[in-house]
Design brief:
The chain contains three helices and six strands. The chain is α/β, with parallel strands linked by helices and 121 residues long. A four-stranded mixed β-sheet has the order 3-4-6-5, covered by helices on one side. It has a two-stranded parallel sheet with strand order 1-2.
Length: 121
């Protein structure tokens, strides 16, 4: 399952999956800053969730993620402040614990880094 807010990117992902023979992924367009709890894909159980939100973070989707039954959340962030806020929510409100974290300097000679955190139940 892959969810992205930009329809053009979802179309490109579908095309890329098709070219590579990947048939076990569904792609959906959704604005994850709005209430998506009633959409069919939010009602399914998931083992793991990968979040790679924009700089604003993933606060609005965290209740859906927590309700999915996922035992692991991998969170990739380009903004350490929103990651810290969302990490606190995952731990204090949704029963996860931080089990690993790291920072990757993917853009040398800039102030931008990517952070990754793993949360388990």
């Amino acid at each position: 399952m892959a969810v992205e807010g930009d329809a053009g990117l979802v179309q490109r992902a579908r095309g890329n999956a098709g070219r590579n023979g990947i048939t076990n992924v569904e792609f959906h367009v959704a604005d994850l800053f709005k209430d998506v709890a009633g959409l069919p894909w939010t009602q399914r159980p998931y083992d793991s969730v990968l979040l790679d939100p924009p700089r604003a973070g993933a606060r609005e989707i965290l209740p859906v993620v927590a309700g999915s039954g996922a035992g692991r959340v991998v969170y990739i962030s380009c903004h350490s402040g929103s990651l810290a806020r969302d990490a606190g929510l995952l731990v204090r409100e949704h029963g996860f614990r931080l089990t690993a974290a790291g920072v990757m300097d993917m853009f040398p000679h800039t102030t931008h880094v990517e952070a990754m955190a793993v949360f388990d139940r």
